[in-house]
């Protein structure tokens, strides 16, 4: 049977054999001609210097490995294969950074200990992979723990997704029908994760993402369950990152402004995983502590359990309440917490069906205090142009004014997206 590994042999030994063979032939041919031999020796010295320089370049090139450097499913020990699968785990995402698909350069500067901790690799697993590369299938590009830990994760970024998928399926063929033991189960579990991570955000498994905002000390960590049953609030959307950064910057700029300090009640609508509300609360706490402020982050019942968990994980549960506020039935929320108005309302990406503009404007009308401000960020999705127009018309019809509007570009899981920010308040000239 054809095995692609037949085409591949550890390169160092072959080269050494070729060089020795060439030197022997040269010496035999020119042993009666000292000039040629001396020139050859000098050339060799020059070549030696050149070779040293080239070695340095090659070292760079040498760090590039490919799929054929991975231990083949047929021969590798289960421990070595499991270690490879764990090394191919995606790095944690920061601010929609695409390290999920592309190799994150920071891995290069991390120590073996840190990489193993992040990827949950035990020292036993790592040594079984090292034994593979030093004793069983010698490979100079992967013969130290550091080379293994920094080079194998890079395979995710070499545009070799299809080849990696072939590698995963070859392992799956081997381990799918095996006896049920711990290591076998682990391999199958990691394999399913690696395969699904390649299937786009909507088919990906659950994940935790970090958000690292300017002017904010706290790094926000958000858990996102895998997206099922159209629960869009289980993913963090690009609008919320843009809005969070703008709000944090505003709080920073206005920190000595009395008006900013007078905010007492804050409400987030359709909070999803909670980035906007959590960022706002973290910045507020950083500037003023958490006294005399009431804050609610709200969404539909299916979303609130995870939202609450994210509030807790970011140590905000002593002053941020996560609860249900359904735009089609706000009465339950009002019964539980009163109908007192809010100084600040935060909303990111709430318009993606024909009913949403009306529901969202109703919520702003119901909950925004007379001198309050609503901060709204929406993506400029081509498909929802009519809904955006409807939103603008409804705001105007209800006596709401857009005091500030600006567009920007930002990231989401699918790449760059254009966004529109609106600062909305009541038209106070009408009430005077
Ligand atoms: C596209 S997601 C945006 C989530 C979050 N704001 C973000 O930007 O990451 C829209 C959110 O609106 C919520 N939503 C939709 N209809 C709602 C309703 N009737 N009442 C309350 N929330 C709703 C969804 O559950 C979801 O969390």
Automatic annotation (TrEMBL):
The keyword Transferase applies. GO terms for molecular function: protein-lysine N-methyltransferase activity. One of its GO terms (cellular component) is cytosol. Gene3D superfamilies: Vaccinia Virus protein VP39. GO terms for biological process: positive regulation of translational termination. Keywords: Transferase. This is Uncharacterized protein. It comes from Naumovozyma dairenensis (strain ATCC 10597 / BCRC 20456 / CBS 421 / NBRC 0211 / NRRL Y-12639) (Saccharomyces dairenensis). The gene is NDAI0B04730.
């Amino acid at each position: 049977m054809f095995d692609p590994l037949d085409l591949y042999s550890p390169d160092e030994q072959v080269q050494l054999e070729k060089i020795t063979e060439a030197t022997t032939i040269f010496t035999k041919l020119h042993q009666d001609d000292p000039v040629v031999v001396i020139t050859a020796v000098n050339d060799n010295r020059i070549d030696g210097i050149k070779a040293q320089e080239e070695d340095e370049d090659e070292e760079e090139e040498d760090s590039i490995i490919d799929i054929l450097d991975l231990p083949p499913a047929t021969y590798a020990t289960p421990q070595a294969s499991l270690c490879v699968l764990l090394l191919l785990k995606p790095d944690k995402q920061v601010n929609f950074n695409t390290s999920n698909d592309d190799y994150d350069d920071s891995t290069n500067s991390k120590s073996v200990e840190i990489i193993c901790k992040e990827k949950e690799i035990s020292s036993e697993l790592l040594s079984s992979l090292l034994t593979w590369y030093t004793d069983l299938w010698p490979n100079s590009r992967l013969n130290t723990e550091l080379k293994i830990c920094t080079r194998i994760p890079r395979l995710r970024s070499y545009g070799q997704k299809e080849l990696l998928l072939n590698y995963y399926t070859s392992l799956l063929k081997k381990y799918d029908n095996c006896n049920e033991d711990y290591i076998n189960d682990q391999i199958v579990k990691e394999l399913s994760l690696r395969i699904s991570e390649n299937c786009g955000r909507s088919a990906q498994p659950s994940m935790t993402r970090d958000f690292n905002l300017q002017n904010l000390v706290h790094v926000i960590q958000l858990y996102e369950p895998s997206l099922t049953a159209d629960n869009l609030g289980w993913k963090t959307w690009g609008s919320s990152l843009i809005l969070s950064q703008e709000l944090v910057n505003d709080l920073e700029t206005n920190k000595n402004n009395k008006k900013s300090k007078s905010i007492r009640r804050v409400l987030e609508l359709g909070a999803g995983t909670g980035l906007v509300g959590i960022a706002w609360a973290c910045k507020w706490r950083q500037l003023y502590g958490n006294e005399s402020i009431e804050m609610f982050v709200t969404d539909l019942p299916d979303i609130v359990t995870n939202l609450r968990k994210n509030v807790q994980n970011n140590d905000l549960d002593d002053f941020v309440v996560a609860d249900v506020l359904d735009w089609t039935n706000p009465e339950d929320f009002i019964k539980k917490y009163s109908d007192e108005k809010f100084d600040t309302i935060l909303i990111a990406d709430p318009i993606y069906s024909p009913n949403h503009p009306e529901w969202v404007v109703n919520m702003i009308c119901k909950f925004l205090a007379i001198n309050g401000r609503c901060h709204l960020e929406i993506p400029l999705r081509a498909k929802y142009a009519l809904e955006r127009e409807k939103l603008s018309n409804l705001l105007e019809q209800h006596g709401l004014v857009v005091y500030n509007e600006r567009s920007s570009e930002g990231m989401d899981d699918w790449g760059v997206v254009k966004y529109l920010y609106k600062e909305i308040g009541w038209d106070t000239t009408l009430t005077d």
